[in-house]
Amino acid sequence: MNHTTVWSLAALPFLAMAAPGAGAWGCKGHQTVALIAEKHLTPEARQMVQQLLGDNPIDPKLKRWCGNATTDLMVDASTWPDDVRNERKNGPWHYIDIPRGQHKSDLAAYCGAEGCVTRAIEEQRAILKDKSADSLKRAEAIRYLIHFVGDMHQPLHAITNADNGGNCVPVKYLHHEPLPNSLHPERDDYSPNLHQVWDTEIVERDMEVSYPFRYADELHEKFHAEIAAWEAAGIHVENWAWESHERAETGVYDAFPEKIAIEPDRKLKSCAEDNHMGKRMFEKHLAIGEAYQASAAKVAQTGLAEAGVRLAMILNDAAKASN
Ligand SMILES: [Zn+2]
User: Fold this and answer.
1) Which of 24, 98, 236, 258 has its CA 20 to 30 A from that of 151?
2) Which run of H or of E encompasses 179?
3) Residues having C-beta closer than 5 Å to ion ligand 1
């Protein structure tokens, strides 16, 4: 194999993740959220979840991006929505494009005709709460909720700077320079980019020798003192999206020493649009080193812990309603 072929194959996972708002937390992030939630389920919710997921197993023929070796039904469910993303055309459900610089207001303005993460969560909650709804639909609602509550706590799933949620922002990550997609250099699509690093690399590097089962324990312990306050605040999906948005302003964009200007709002079909957004951002030579990694890991940890606790709140609430 020549050099180009090797790179192209190696880049396939990145390419799959590099669609606008793609992926969200990588496998391990989503699995961690599911495991934190499990620690907070009421007995009724646990029973409801096990029953619905157990009675309606995931199609064994479905290609599972994160593997299917786990016996934990919630962990297995946590990554399913990404696996059916293309066949179900549910891409826009994974994020909400709130333009940078916006302040708290009604989110309906940013939720397009094809939907967004906050609306998807409300719709799937309603299905799960309806005990007369089809059992398969309710099982899928649980799978979507596990995934989307996680997704919305990835800060770049609640913001855009005319850069497709950071997908069009090439970054050097530690010692890895951003490279253009060799199959389609005209798309101005680079890897690593800001979105991809926040989905996966920051969390996975923070895990070091840990793994989702253990990392969930570690985060649960670390945020112990805050959990009661998160629970007391109740279920407010729109507030959670705004918190995530604000966290993206301060913890993602403003965490670089270089100022990244607020761009006029635009949705790009590719990073080559808007006068070569990808290339323009590449020329800023943004780099994530140890200092950014450390501050970003704290932000990501908080999001994962909150997502787990809040997911449990949603499932506990649904179990109450369906008894
Ligand atoms: Zn997702």
Assistant:
1) 258
2) strand 179-180
3) 24, 94, 151
